[in-house]
Amino acid sequence: MLEQIAAEGTEALPELIRFLINEAMRLEREQYLGAGPYERTPDRRGHANGYKPKTVKAWVGKIQFEVPQVRQGSFYSDALDKGLLCGTEVNSIQVSRAAEKLDEVLEAWRNRPLSKIEYLYLDARYEKVRMDGQIRDAAILIASAVGKDRKRRILGVSVSLSEAEQHWRLFLEDLIRRGMEGVKLIISDDHSGLRKARQAVFTGIP
Fold it and tell me: Which of 70, 83, 158, 177 could anchor a disulfide with 171, C-beta 3.0 to 4.6 Å?
């Protein structure tokens, strides 16, 4: 998904970068303090003191980050400068917490309201995923579009075990449920499952 966003562009990318760097900086502060929020430990080196906004001009535009502050000491996060968290160890609980928050961001993006478009692009790519202890090929259904502003953006993605008609049909119906309308032309390959779903959901659209 991130590769697709980076290649084709979407307004979701700045938000993902903001979230990941903010989370990396928060974890750095926890490690500097030697304790998590409200955690009592003899190894604590100080206390958190909120966040300070900082706007950075990046290649995707201006992004406002929340830089963690501490009450004592001279803590400064390296994550914002380097763009990644390195040189420290992150435990499984911290990783799980970050993953849960990222899931919330991505779920909100996947369910955001859509508006009028003109050209709808439908395609799929296959990635290996672990399911029930086994490595399997999963189909990543992707819908992107061009609107009146002539900019291409990703409308949504869906993970399925195949490109069967029912999977494509549910995906397309969900795009309509989110408010997509005004489609003049659909661009896709001639996969049988996709073709049948397209004909059923978008009757009469070439």
Answer: 158
Same domain, 127 and 104: no
Q: Is the domain of 72 the same as that of 156?
A: no
For 126, the domain range is: 119-201
Strand, helix or coil for residue 116: strand
Over the stretch 139-184, which tens digit does the pLDDT of each residue have? 999 999 988 888 888 999 999 888 999 999 999 999 999 999 999 9
Residue given tokens 């980076």 in the structure block = 6
- Helices first, then strands: H and E counts in the chain: 6, 6
Runs of H (alpha helix) within 111-164: none
Looking at the structure of the chain, the number of domains it has is 2
Q: Are 7 and 97 in contact (CB under 8 A)?
A: no
Give dist(CA 145, CA 190) in Å, integer: 18
Please indicate, yes or no, whether residues 106 and 154 belong to a single structural domain of this protein: no
Q: Answer yes or no: are the C-beta atoms of 125 and 142 closer than 8 Å.
A: yes
The pTM for the full model equals 0.58
